[in-house]
Structure formats: structure tokens, C-alpha cells
């Protein structure tokens, strides 16, 4: 009798567990109203944070009751690599990768080529003529649907040793970079000792002397308060890095068409705000960083381009259709 009761009890538990799983699956149905999580690495006040919050504000004004985008900055949901993993797992709905996309899809290394992007107008032409036609389909095949192209920005170098006037001044400097292989190659070519590190760890790394410097757009330099632990800012503008609002294609396809439409429209519309804000910050932040006690200099960029020109050759030879991507990007908007 005891065995029969025990057996029946086990069957009951299996049945209950099955029901629980069924109802759990129903409650997490992507077509049901829910919180849409947006994770990114930007600190408060950074362009990433401002862009994500603006997109969430715009979309939330239009989304039906029960739907809401909630932003989680400062790597609260993980760094770039972890966020991309969570996008594929469906535990994060939106992420805003930048350089790391070149580690996921080789062709995105296009935006690691020094001085390729001349200005934001040129970037918009590249977006239209190269990103949507070539790069976005490759990203989707890799598990990331690009909803919009926003901005990380023109990148500059800070360090605690000296102003950078030529590439020779980078010799021996331990410089934090993102983990993208092309950024490592760039600063190796320029003579630095590039050290990949998560953005959330950089301030402590600079403060403790684990690294001597870093390179980022002004908005990230300001938002992350690197000016508190760096003495020099050199406006090298060596790379322009876009940022990509990405979702999981599977997760996206499970959303109601009404929700997709709102999110897609507001993601694209937010780009105007992103570019206007980025332009304003570029104008304002140099002065604010200087006022914080950092010595700012504007080096001649030609020696930096000359020293890193081999990257173009390597990209063209090693990345599928690399030469074509470079040529089309450089010529974008010329017609």
C-alpha cells in the first residue's frame, strides 16, 4: 500500500510539473504584454544611455497597455559579449553593440578601418548603401536583427603619460581597447600595447595603473568619468564606430505585428535625436573635459593614418568581399 501511494504521488508530481511548465510557457509568450529589457554598457549621461532612454520614451508612449521598454545601462545586464549571448537566449530583448559586432561578423570590421567615415552625413550614406544591403543580412544570419543604426562616435585617446602628437608617442603605452580584433591590430600598428577590457572595468584599471590609457568617443569618456583619472586627451578621431540596435530574429518574429511596427518606426526615428545629441556633445564636452583639468591637444591625423594603412590591405585580403565593401563605403554618397 505504501508503494502504491508513493507511486501515485510521483505521478501527481510529474503531472503538476507538466502543468506548471505549460502555464509558464504561456505566461512567457512573446505575444503577451510584458517588459521589454534593453541592456547596454553606457554610463548615465553617455550617448548610449541618452539614446536608449529616448527610444524607450518614444516607444512607450505608443505601445499598448502592458507593454513597456525598460533600459538597463552601466552593464547591469552584462557587458557587450554577455548581452549578445542573452539576445540569442531571449533573456534580453534589445542590446546596443558597437565594436564587438566585428567579432561576431567579419564584415563589420569595415568600421574598424582608420578614418574611413568622414562625417555623419557620410555615415548615413554608408548605412544606406552598405549596411542595409550587405551587413544587416549577415548580422541576421548570425542571430542579430539590426533594427537601427545609431552611434558610438568618433574615438579619441586619453592617457596619463603625455600628449600624443605622432604614433611614436604611443610606443609602450598600455591602452585599453574593446575586444574587436581590428582595434587590437590598429593600435599594435601604431606602437601601443593594446589591452582588451570590458568598459565597466576601465575606470578602476586607469585609477590603479593597470592600464595607462584608453580610447573612446567623448560622450563615453565623459559619461565614464575617465577625465578624473587621465591627464591627457588627444583628439585623434582614429575610428568612427556606429552602434547597432539589435534584437533576436526569433524573438522579434514572435512579437505581434503592431508591436513590431511601433518598435521599428521609433528605432529608426530615434537616429535623428542620436546624431543631433552626438554633435552637441562633441561640441560641448571638449571644453568640459578641459575644465576638469585634462590637457587637450589636436594632433595631425595623417601620420596615424599612414602608420595604420596596412589594415586596409589586410581587410581587403582576409574578409569576404572586403575590397568591395571598402570601395563602396569610401565612395558612398558621392553620387
Could you explain the architecture of this structure?
- The protein has 13 helices and ten strands.
- Helix 2 (47-62) links the parallel strand 1 and strand 2 (68-72).
- The chain has one domain (35-331): 3-Layer(aba) Sandwich (D-Maltodextrin-Binding Protein, domain 2), CATH 3.40.190.170.
- It is globular, with a radius of gyration of 23 Å.
- Strands 4, 5, 6, 7, 8, 9 and 10 form a seven-stranded mixed β-sheet that branches.
- Helix 5 (120-141) runs antiparallel to helix 13.
- It starts with a helix and ends with a helix.
- It is an alpha/beta fold.
- The chain has helices spanning 2-27, 47-62, 80-89, 101-104, 120-141, 181-189, 199-208, 218-223, 249-254, 257-291, 302-307, 310-318, 322-331; strands at 35-39, 68-72, 94-95, 145-159, 174-177, 193-196, 213-217, 232-234, 240-247, 295-297.
Amino acid at each position: 500500500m505504501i508503494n502504491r501511494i508513493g507511486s501515485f504521488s510521483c505521478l501527481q508530481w510529474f503531472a503538476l510539473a507538466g502543468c506548471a511548465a505549460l502555464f509558464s510557457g504561456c505566461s512567457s509568450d512573446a505575444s503577451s504584454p510584458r517588459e521589454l529589457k534593453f541592456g547596454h554598457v553606457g554610463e548615465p549621461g553617455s550617448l548610449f544611455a541618452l539614446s536608449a532612454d529616448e527610444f524607450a520614451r518614444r516607444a512607450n508612449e505608443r505601445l499598448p497597455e502592458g507593454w513597456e521598454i525598460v533600459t538597463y545601462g552601466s552593464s547591469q545586464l552584462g557587458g557587450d559579449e554577455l548581452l549578445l549571448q542573452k539576445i540569442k537566449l531571449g533573456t534580453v530583448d534589445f542590446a546596443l553593440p558597437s565594436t564587438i559586432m566585428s567579432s561576431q561578423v567579419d564584415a563589420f570590421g569595415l568600421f574598424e578601418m582608420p578614418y574611413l567615415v568622414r562625417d555623419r552625413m557620410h555615415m548615413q550614406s554608408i548605412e544606406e548603401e552598405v549596411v542595409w544591403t550587405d551587413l544587416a543580412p549577415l548580422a541576421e544570419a548570425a542571430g542579430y536583427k539590426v533594427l537601427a543604426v545609431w552611434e558610438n562616435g568618433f574615438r579619441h585617446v586619453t592617457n596619463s603619460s603625455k600628449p600624443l602628437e605622432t604614433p611614436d608617442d604611443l610606443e609602450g603605452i598600455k591602452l585599453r581597447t574593446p575586444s574587436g580584433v581590428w582595434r587590437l591590430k590598429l593600435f599594435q600598428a601604431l606602437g601601443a600595447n593594446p589591452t582588451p577590457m570590458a568598459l565597466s572595468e576601465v575606470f578602476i584599471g586607469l585609477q590603479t595603473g593597470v592600464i595607462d590609457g584608453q580610447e573612446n568617443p567623448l560622450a563615453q569618456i565623459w559619461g565614464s568619468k575617465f577625465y578624473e583619472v587621465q591627464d591627457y586627451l588627444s583628439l585623434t578621431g582614429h575610428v568612427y564606430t556606429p552602434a547597432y540596435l539589435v534584437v533576436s530574429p526569433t524573438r522579434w518574429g514572435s512579437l505581434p505585428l503592431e508591436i513590431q511596427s511601433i518598435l521599428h518606426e521609433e528605432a529608426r526615428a530615434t537616429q535623428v535625436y542620436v546624431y543631433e545629441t552626438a554633435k552637441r556633445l562633441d561640441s560641448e564636452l571638449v571644453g568640459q573635459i578641459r575644465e576638469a583639468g585634462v590637457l587637450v591637444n589636436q594632433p595631425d591625423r595623417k601620420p596615424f593614418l599612414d602608420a595604420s594603412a596596412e589594415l586596409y590591405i589586410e581587410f581587403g585580403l582576409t574578409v569576404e568581399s572586403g575590397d568591395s565593401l571598402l570601395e563602396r563605403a569610401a565612395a558612398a554618397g558621392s553620387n
